[in-house]
Protein backbone atom coordinates (compact mmCIF):
# COMPACT_ATOMS: atom_id res chain seq x y z
CA UNK A 1 0.00 0.00 0.00
CA UNK A 2 1.30 3.50 -0.79
CA UNK A 3 1.64 6.04 1.98
CA UNK A 4 -1.41 8.02 0.84
CA UNK A 5 -3.73 5.05 0.96
CA UNK A 6 -2.30 3.71 4.20
CA UNK A 7 -2.84 7.05 5.88
CA UNK A 8 -6.38 7.39 4.64
CA UNK A 9 -7.14 3.85 5.69
CA UNK A 10 -6.02 4.67 9.21
CA UNK A 11 -7.90 7.96 9.34
CA UNK A 12 -11.06 6.20 8.22
CA UNK A 13 -11.21 4.90 11.75
CA UNK A 14 -11.58 8.41 13.20
CA UNK A 15 -15.02 7.48 14.56
CA UNK A 16 -14.05 4.06 15.88
CA UNK A 17 -16.07 1.04 16.79
CA UNK A 18 -14.55 -0.02 20.09
CA UNK A 19 -12.88 -3.41 19.92
CA UNK A 20 -12.56 -5.87 22.84
CA UNK A 21 -9.91 -4.52 25.24
CA UNK A 22 -10.32 -0.94 23.95
CA UNK A 23 -12.20 1.72 25.88
CA UNK A 24 -13.40 5.29 25.65
CA UNK A 25 -10.91 8.05 26.51
CA UNK A 26 -13.35 10.91 25.85
CA UNK A 27 -16.88 11.62 24.68
CA UNK A 28 -17.20 14.60 22.32
CA UNK A 29 -20.74 15.62 21.42
CA UNK A 30 -22.18 12.45 19.82
CA UNK A 31 -18.77 10.96 19.07
CA UNK A 32 -16.07 9.18 21.06
CA UNK A 33 -12.27 9.11 21.21
CA UNK A 34 -10.89 5.61 21.80
CA UNK A 35 -7.90 4.99 24.06
CA UNK A 36 -6.19 3.20 21.18
CA UNK A 37 -6.38 6.40 19.13
CA UNK A 38 -4.70 8.38 21.90
CA UNK A 39 -1.88 5.85 21.99
CA UNK A 40 -1.46 6.05 18.19
CA UNK A 41 -1.53 9.86 18.15
CA UNK A 42 0.96 9.98 21.06
CA UNK A 43 3.41 7.83 19.13
CA UNK A 44 3.01 10.02 16.07
CA UNK A 45 3.75 13.15 18.11
CA UNK A 46 6.80 11.40 19.57
CA UNK A 47 8.11 10.50 16.11
CA UNK A 48 7.56 14.04 14.81
CA UNK A 49 9.40 15.54 17.80
CA UNK A 50 12.26 13.09 17.26
CA UNK A 51 12.51 14.05 13.57
CA UNK A 52 12.72 17.74 14.52
CA UNK A 53 15.46 17.00 17.03
CA UNK A 54 13.34 18.28 19.92
CA UNK A 55 13.49 17.11 23.51
CA UNK A 56 10.37 15.00 23.95
CA UNK A 57 8.07 15.71 26.90
CA UNK A 58 7.26 12.96 29.38
CA UNK A 59 4.69 10.37 28.31
CA UNK A 60 1.86 11.80 30.43
CA UNK A 61 2.29 15.27 28.91
CA UNK A 62 2.51 13.88 25.40
CA UNK A 63 -0.65 11.80 25.89
CA UNK A 64 -2.53 14.83 27.19
CA UNK A 65 -1.43 16.75 24.09
CA UNK A 66 -2.56 13.88 21.86
CA UNK A 67 -5.94 13.64 23.59
CA UNK A 68 -6.56 17.40 23.25
CA UNK A 69 -5.71 17.24 19.54
CA UNK A 70 -8.15 14.36 19.01
CA UNK A 71 -10.87 16.17 20.97
CA UNK A 72 -10.39 19.24 18.75
CA UNK A 73 -10.62 17.01 15.65
CA UNK A 74 -13.92 15.55 16.91
CA UNK A 75 -15.33 18.99 17.79
CA UNK A 76 -14.68 20.19 14.24
CA UNK A 77 -16.00 17.02 12.57
CA UNK A 78 -19.20 16.85 14.61
CA UNK A 79 -19.87 20.55 13.97
CA UNK A 80 -19.28 20.07 10.24
CA UNK A 81 -21.68 17.12 10.12
CA UNK A 82 -24.43 19.24 11.65
CA UNK A 83 -23.75 22.53 9.89
CA UNK A 84 -21.82 21.76 6.71
CA UNK A 85 -23.09 21.67 3.15
CA UNK A 86 -23.87 18.14 2.09
CA UNK A 87 -21.32 16.34 -0.06
CA UNK A 88 -23.29 14.57 -2.79
CA UNK A 89 -22.49 11.01 -3.75
CA UNK A 90 -21.21 11.93 -7.22
CA UNK A 91 -18.61 14.29 -5.79
CA UNK A 92 -17.58 11.76 -3.17
CA UNK A 93 -17.31 9.08 -5.86
CA UNK A 94 -14.91 11.35 -7.78
CA UNK A 95 -12.70 11.86 -4.71
CA UNK A 96 -12.61 8.12 -3.95
CA UNK A 97 -11.76 7.38 -7.58
CA UNK A 98 -8.96 9.94 -7.37
CA UNK A 99 -7.54 8.15 -4.31
CA UNK A 100 -7.61 4.86 -6.23
CA UNK A 101 -5.94 6.46 -9.26
CA UNK A 102 -3.21 8.01 -7.10
CA UNK A 103 -2.41 4.55 -5.79
CA UNK A 104 -2.61 2.97 -9.27
CA UNK A 105 -5.56 0.78 -8.23
CA UNK A 106 -8.90 -0.03 -9.78
CA UNK A 107 -11.94 0.47 -7.59
CA UNK A 108 -12.16 -3.27 -7.02
CA UNK A 109 -8.50 -3.38 -6.00
CA UNK A 110 -9.05 -0.42 -3.67
CA UNK A 111 -11.84 -2.26 -1.87
CA UNK A 112 -9.66 -5.36 -1.53
CA UNK A 113 -6.71 -3.36 -0.23
CA UNK A 114 -8.86 -1.62 2.39
CA UNK A 115 -10.35 -4.95 3.45
CA UNK A 116 -6.87 -6.44 3.84
CA UNK A 117 -5.95 -3.53 6.13
CA UNK A 118 -9.04 -4.05 8.25
CA UNK A 119 -10.75 -0.89 7.01
CA UNK A 120 -14.42 -0.89 6.15
CA UNK A 121 -15.06 0.68 2.71
CA UNK A 122 -18.09 2.59 3.97
CA UNK A 123 -16.05 4.05 6.85
CA UNK A 124 -13.35 5.01 4.37
CA UNK A 125 -15.87 6.96 2.27
CA UNK A 126 -17.44 8.63 5.28
CA UNK A 127 -14.04 9.72 6.55
CA UNK A 128 -13.35 11.43 3.23
CA UNK A 129 -16.77 13.06 3.41
CA UNK A 130 -16.00 14.36 6.91
CA UNK A 131 -12.69 15.82 5.75
CA UNK A 132 -14.33 17.65 2.84
CA UNK A 133 -17.18 19.01 4.97
CA UNK A 134 -14.82 20.15 7.73
CA UNK A 135 -12.62 22.07 5.32
CA UNK A 136 -15.58 23.81 3.70
CA UNK A 137 -17.19 24.72 7.01
CA UNK A 138 -13.87 26.03 8.28
CA UNK A 139 -13.46 28.40 5.33
CA UNK A 140 -17.07 29.58 5.51
CA UNK A 141 -17.13 30.15 9.28
CA UNK A 142 -13.69 31.69 9.65
CA UNK A 143 -14.00 33.99 6.66
CA UNK A 144 -17.37 35.15 8.02
CA UNK A 145 -15.66 36.26 11.24
CA UNK A 146 -13.07 38.45 9.54
CA UNK A 147 -13.93 42.12 9.14
CA UNK A 148 -11.79 44.64 7.26
CA UNK A 149 -12.66 48.35 7.49
CA UNK A 150 -12.07 51.07 4.92
CA UNK A 151 -9.73 52.77 7.38
CA UNK A 152 -7.60 49.62 7.57
CA UNK A 153 -7.44 49.46 3.78
CA UNK A 154 -6.41 53.13 3.58
CA UNK A 155 -3.64 52.54 6.14
CA UNK A 156 -2.44 49.41 4.32
CA UNK A 157 -2.22 51.24 0.97
CA UNK A 158 -0.49 54.27 2.55
CA UNK A 159 2.19 51.99 4.04
CA UNK A 160 2.64 50.13 0.78
CA UNK A 161 2.92 53.38 -1.18
CA UNK A 162 5.56 54.70 1.23
CA UNK A 163 7.52 51.46 1.01
CA UNK A 164 7.49 51.53 -2.79
CA UNK A 165 8.58 55.15 -2.95
CA UNK A 166 11.44 54.49 -0.55
CA UNK A 167 12.55 51.05 -1.62
CA UNK A 168 11.82 50.72 -5.33
CA UNK A 169 12.58 47.26 -6.69
CA UNK A 170 15.48 45.05 -5.67
CA UNK A 171 16.97 41.88 -7.08
CA UNK A 172 18.69 40.01 -4.25
CA UNK A 173 20.75 36.85 -4.29
CA UNK A 174 21.20 34.74 -1.21
CA UNK A 175 23.15 31.85 0.22
CA UNK A 176 20.91 30.05 2.70
CA UNK A 177 22.22 27.63 5.31
CA UNK A 178 19.03 26.32 6.94
CA UNK A 179 18.64 25.57 10.64
CA UNK A 180 15.99 22.94 11.50
CA UNK A 181 13.23 24.02 13.85
CA UNK A 182 14.10 23.04 17.41
CA UNK A 183 17.76 22.41 16.52
CA UNK A 184 20.22 21.86 19.35
CA UNK A 185 22.91 24.43 20.16
CA UNK A 186 25.50 22.16 18.56
CA UNK A 187 23.59 22.02 15.28
CA UNK A 188 23.07 25.80 15.29
CA UNK A 189 26.79 26.34 15.87
CA UNK A 190 27.69 23.97 13.03
CA UNK A 191 25.31 25.74 10.60
CA UNK A 192 26.61 29.17 11.65
CA UNK A 193 30.19 28.05 11.04
CA UNK A 194 29.24 26.77 7.59
CA UNK A 195 27.58 30.11 6.72
CA UNK A 196 30.53 32.11 8.07
CA UNK A 197 32.89 30.01 5.98
CA UNK A 198 30.84 30.79 2.86
CA UNK A 199 30.80 34.51 3.69
CA UNK A 200 34.58 34.48 4.17
CA UNK A 201 35.05 32.91 0.73
CA UNK A 202 32.90 35.63 -0.86
CA UNK A 203 34.78 38.40 0.98
CA UNK A 204 38.03 36.88 -0.29
CA UNK A 205 36.81 37.41 -3.85
CA UNK A 206 35.18 34.10 -4.75
CA UNK A 207 32.18 34.39 -7.09
CA UNK A 208 28.92 34.72 -5.10
CA UNK A 209 26.93 32.62 -7.57
CA UNK A 210 29.47 29.80 -7.39
CA UNK A 211 29.34 29.73 -3.59
CA UNK A 212 25.52 29.83 -3.68
CA UNK A 213 25.33 26.86 -6.06
CA UNK A 214 27.70 24.90 -3.84
CA UNK A 215 26.47 25.84 -0.35
CA UNK A 216 22.96 27.27 -0.50
CA UNK A 217 19.92 25.10 0.24
CA UNK A 218 17.06 27.08 -1.25
CA UNK A 219 15.09 26.87 -4.49
CA UNK A 220 17.21 29.50 -6.28
CA UNK A 221 20.64 27.89 -5.84
CA UNK A 222 20.78 26.79 -9.49
CA UNK A 223 20.45 30.47 -10.48
CA UNK A 224 23.33 31.48 -8.25
CA UNK A 225 20.94 32.34 -5.44
CA UNK A 226 19.07 35.07 -7.37
CA UNK A 227 15.57 35.69 -6.03
CA UNK A 228 14.58 37.97 -8.91
CA UNK A 229 13.61 41.64 -9.27
CA UNK A 230 10.59 42.59 -7.14
CA UNK A 231 9.19 45.56 -5.19
CA UNK A 232 10.80 46.02 -1.78
CA UNK A 233 7.45 45.51 -0.05
CA UNK A 234 7.22 42.02 -1.55
CA UNK A 235 10.45 40.98 0.17
CA UNK A 236 10.79 40.08 3.86
CA UNK A 237 11.38 43.20 5.93
CA UNK A 238 14.50 41.68 7.49
CA UNK A 239 16.01 41.26 3.99
CA UNK A 240 15.27 44.87 3.02
CA UNK A 241 16.70 46.19 6.29
CA UNK A 242 19.82 44.02 5.98
CA UNK A 243 20.73 45.48 2.56
CA UNK A 244 19.68 49.07 3.30
CA UNK A 245 22.38 51.38 1.98
CA UNK A 246 24.12 48.70 -0.10
CA UNK A 247 24.78 49.45 -3.76
CA UNK A 248 24.42 47.12 -6.72
CA UNK A 249 26.98 44.33 -6.49
CA UNK A 250 27.63 44.73 -2.76
CA UNK A 251 27.25 41.94 -0.19
CA UNK A 252 25.86 42.42 3.32
CA UNK A 253 28.92 42.28 5.61
CA UNK A 254 27.23 40.21 8.32
CA UNK A 255 25.20 37.01 8.38
CA UNK A 256 21.44 37.46 8.71
CA UNK A 257 19.64 35.05 11.04
CA UNK A 258 15.95 34.29 10.39
CA UNK A 259 13.54 31.54 11.32
CA UNK A 260 14.77 29.62 8.26
CA UNK A 261 18.46 29.77 9.12
CA UNK A 262 21.53 31.88 8.19
CA UNK A 263 21.49 34.08 5.07
CA UNK A 264 24.21 35.83 3.08
CA UNK A 265 22.65 38.57 0.93
CA UNK A 266 23.91 40.34 -2.17
CA UNK A 267 22.27 43.25 -4.04
CA UNK A 268 22.25 42.19 -7.70
CA UNK A 269 20.22 45.15 -8.99
CA UNK A 270 18.21 48.14 -7.78
CA UNK A 271 15.56 50.01 -9.75
CA UNK A 272 13.49 53.11 -9.04
CA UNK A 273 10.27 53.08 -7.10
CA UNK A 274 7.47 51.01 -8.54
CA UNK A 275 4.02 52.45 -9.10
CA UNK A 276 1.24 51.47 -6.73
CA UNK A 277 -1.13 51.31 -9.71
CA UNK A 278 0.99 48.71 -11.48
CA UNK A 279 0.79 45.08 -10.49
CA UNK A 280 2.63 41.94 -11.48
CA UNK A 281 0.29 39.09 -12.35
CA UNK A 282 1.45 35.51 -12.40
CA UNK A 283 0.10 32.56 -14.37
CA UNK A 284 0.84 29.48 -12.28
CA UNK A 285 -0.24 25.90 -11.77
CA UNK A 286 0.09 23.55 -8.82
CA UNK A 287 -0.31 20.04 -7.46
CA UNK A 288 -2.05 19.92 -4.08
CA UNK A 289 -2.01 17.08 -1.55
CA UNK A 290 -4.18 17.41 1.54
CA UNK A 291 -2.73 15.74 4.65
CA UNK A 292 -5.20 13.66 6.61
CA UNK A 293 -5.20 12.96 10.33
CA UNK A 294 -2.51 10.30 9.84
CA UNK A 295 -0.84 11.63 6.67
CA UNK A 296 1.60 14.24 7.96
CA UNK A 297 2.73 17.23 5.95
CA UNK A 298 6.22 15.68 5.94
CA UNK A 299 4.96 12.54 4.18
CA UNK A 300 3.01 14.60 1.63
CA UNK A 301 6.12 16.75 1.04
CA UNK A 302 8.27 13.68 0.31
CA UNK A 303 5.72 12.51 -2.20
CA UNK A 304 5.64 15.90 -3.94
CA UNK A 305 9.44 16.00 -3.99
CA UNK A 306 9.34 12.71 -5.89
CA UNK A 307 6.83 14.20 -8.37
CA UNK A 308 9.21 17.14 -8.88
CA UNK A 309 12.08 14.74 -9.60
CA UNK A 310 9.98 12.88 -12.16
CA UNK A 311 9.01 16.13 -13.89
CA UNK A 312 12.54 17.56 -13.97
CA UNK A 313 14.00 14.30 -15.33
CA UNK A 314 11.35 14.13 -18.07
CA UNK A 315 9.72 10.96 -16.76
CA UNK A 316 6.38 12.69 -16.26
CA UNK A 317 4.57 15.89 -17.21
CA UNK A 318 3.44 18.37 -14.58
CA UNK A 319 -0.07 18.65 -15.97
CA UNK A 320 -0.61 14.89 -16.08
CA UNK A 321 0.54 14.39 -12.48
CA UNK A 322 -1.80 17.23 -11.47
CA UNK A 323 -4.75 15.61 -13.26
CA UNK A 324 -4.05 12.25 -11.64
CA UNK A 325 -3.15 13.39 -8.12
CA UNK A 326 -4.00 16.98 -7.26
CA UNK A 327 -6.77 17.27 -4.70
CA UNK A 328 -8.54 20.46 -5.69
CA UNK A 329 -10.78 21.83 -8.44
CA UNK A 330 -7.86 22.72 -10.73
CA UNK A 331 -6.94 19.05 -11.26
CA UNK A 332 -8.98 18.59 -14.49
CA UNK A 333 -7.11 21.58 -15.96
CA UNK A 334 -3.72 20.10 -15.13
CA UNK A 335 -3.46 22.23 -11.99
CA UNK A 336 -3.79 25.51 -13.95
CA UNK A 337 -4.72 28.40 -11.64
CA UNK A 338 -4.95 31.09 -14.32
CA UNK A 339 -3.66 34.66 -13.93
CA UNK A 340 -3.58 36.08 -10.40
CA UNK A 341 -2.34 39.34 -8.91
CA UNK A 342 -0.80 40.13 -5.54
CA UNK A 343 -2.87 38.86 -2.63
CA UNK A 344 -4.69 36.30 -4.73
CA UNK A 345 -3.14 33.34 -2.92
CA UNK A 346 -2.40 32.58 0.72
CA UNK A 347 0.91 34.17 1.81
CA UNK A 348 2.95 30.94 2.00
CA UNK A 349 1.93 30.00 -1.54
CA UNK A 350 2.46 33.49 -2.94
CA UNK A 351 5.89 33.92 -1.35
CA UNK A 352 7.13 30.65 -2.85
CA UNK A 353 5.56 31.43 -6.23
CA UNK A 354 7.11 34.90 -6.39
CA UNK A 355 10.57 33.45 -5.74
CA UNK A 356 10.39 31.17 -8.79
CA UNK A 357 11.80 31.99 -12.23
CA UNK A 358 9.67 31.34 -15.31
CA UNK A 359 9.00 27.59 -15.66
CA UNK A 360 10.64 27.02 -12.28
CA UNK A 361 9.16 24.42 -9.94
CA UNK A 362 9.10 24.97 -6.20
CA UNK A 363 9.89 22.50 -3.49
CA UNK A 364 6.92 21.38 -1.36
CA UNK A 365 5.10 24.38 0.11
CA UNK A 366 2.82 24.02 3.14
CA UNK A 367 -0.31 26.16 3.49
CA UNK A 368 -3.56 25.75 5.39
CA UNK A 369 -5.00 23.97 2.34
CA UNK A 370 -2.31 21.30 2.27
CA UNK A 371 1.06 20.86 0.59
CA UNK A 372 1.69 22.30 -2.89
CA UNK A 373 4.12 21.87 -5.76
CA UNK A 374 4.08 25.14 -7.76
CA UNK A 375 5.20 26.03 -11.27
CA UNK A 376 5.25 29.55 -12.76
CA UNK A 377 4.27 29.65 -16.44
CA UNK A 378 4.11 33.40 -17.25
CA UNK A 379 4.30 36.87 -15.68
CA UNK A 380 2.99 40.24 -16.83
CA UNK A 381 2.67 43.80 -15.52
CA UNK A 382 -0.78 45.39 -15.70
CA UNK A 383 -2.35 48.67 -14.67
CA UNK A 384 -4.58 48.32 -11.64
CA UNK A 385 -7.74 50.36 -11.09
CA UNK A 386 -8.43 51.83 -7.66
CA UNK A 387 -11.22 49.31 -6.97
CA UNK A 388 -8.91 46.40 -7.82
CA UNK A 389 -6.20 47.92 -5.65
CA UNK A 390 -8.54 48.13 -2.67
CA UNK A 391 -9.81 44.59 -3.30
CA UNK A 392 -6.22 43.33 -3.26
CA UNK A 393 -5.55 45.20 -0.01
CA UNK A 394 -8.73 43.77 1.53
CA UNK A 395 -7.63 40.25 0.53
CA UNK A 396 -4.17 40.73 2.03
CA UNK A 397 -5.61 42.07 5.28
CA UNK A 398 -8.07 39.18 5.52
CA UNK A 399 -5.19 36.74 5.20
CA UNK A 400 -3.31 38.55 7.96
CA UNK A 401 -6.31 38.09 10.24
CA UNK A 402 -7.10 34.48 9.29
CA UNK A 403 -5.03 32.58 11.88
CA UNK A 404 -6.36 34.59 14.82
CA UNK A 405 -9.95 34.21 13.56
CA UNK A 406 -9.48 30.47 13.13
CA UNK A 407 -8.14 30.02 16.65
CA UNK A 408 -11.05 32.02 18.07
CA UNK A 409 -13.54 29.91 16.11
CA UNK A 410 -12.03 26.64 17.33
CA UNK A 411 -11.99 27.95 20.92
CA UNK A 412 -15.67 28.91 20.68
CA UNK A 413 -16.63 25.49 19.31
CA UNK A 414 -14.59 23.76 22.02
CA UNK A 415 -16.30 25.81 24.75
CA UNK A 416 -19.79 25.01 23.40
CA UNK A 417 -19.12 21.31 22.82
CA UNK A 418 -20.01 18.54 25.23
CA UNK A 419 -16.69 16.99 26.24
CA UNK A 420 -16.31 14.31 28.89
CA UNK A 421 -12.78 13.04 29.52
CA UNK A 422 -12.81 9.64 31.22
CA UNK A 423 -10.25 7.99 33.45
CA UNK A 424 -8.19 5.32 31.72
CA UNK A 425 -4.96 3.49 32.41
CA UNK A 426 -1.66 4.00 30.54
From TrEMBL:
Spell out the molecular function terms from Gene Ontology: peptidyl-prolyl cis-trans isomerase activity
Q: What's its EC?
A: 5.2.1.8
The record's PROSITE patterns line, in alphabetical order, gives: PPIC_PPIASE_2
- What keyword terms does UniProt attach to this protein? Chaperone, Coiled coil, Isomerase, Periplasm, Repeat, Rotamase, Signal
User: Which residues does UniProt call coiled coil?
Assistant: 297-324
Share the domain note from the entry.
The PPIase activity resides only in the second parvulin domain. The N-terminal region and the C-terminal tail are necessary and sufficient for the chaperone activity of SurA. The PPIase activity is dispensable for SurA to function as a chaperone. The N-terminal region and the C-terminal tail are also required for porin recognition.
Which reactions is this enzyme annotated as catalysing? [protein]-peptidylproline (omega=180) = [protein]-peptidylproline (omega=0)
- Positions of transmembrane segments: none
Compartment(s): Periplasm
Main subcellular localization, coarse class? periplasm
| Entry function | Chaperone involved in the correct folding and assembly of outer membrane proteins. Recognizes specific patterns of aromatic residues and the orientation of their side chains, which are found more frequently in integral outer membrane proteins. May act in both early periplasmic and late outer membrane-associated steps of protein maturation.
Query: Is DNA repair given among the entry's keywords?
Result: no
Q: What is this protein called?
A: Chaperone SurA
Q: Where is the PpiC domain?
A: 167-269, 279-378
* InterPro entries in the record: OMP_Chaperone_SurA, PPIase_dom_sf, PPIase_PpiC, PPIase_SurA, SurA_N, Trigger_fact/SurA_dom_sf
Amino acid sequence: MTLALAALSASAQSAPTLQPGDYIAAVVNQDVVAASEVIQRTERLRQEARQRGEVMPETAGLRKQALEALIEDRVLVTYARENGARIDEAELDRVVANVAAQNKLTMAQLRERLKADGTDYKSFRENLRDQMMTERVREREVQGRIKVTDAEIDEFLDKRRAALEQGGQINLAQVLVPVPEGATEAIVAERRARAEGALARIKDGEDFARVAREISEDGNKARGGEIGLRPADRLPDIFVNAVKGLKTGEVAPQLLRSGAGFHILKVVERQGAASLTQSTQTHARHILLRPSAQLTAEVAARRLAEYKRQIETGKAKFEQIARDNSEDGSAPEGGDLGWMGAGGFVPEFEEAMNALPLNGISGPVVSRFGVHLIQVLERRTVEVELKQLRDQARGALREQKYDEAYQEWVKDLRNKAFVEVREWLD
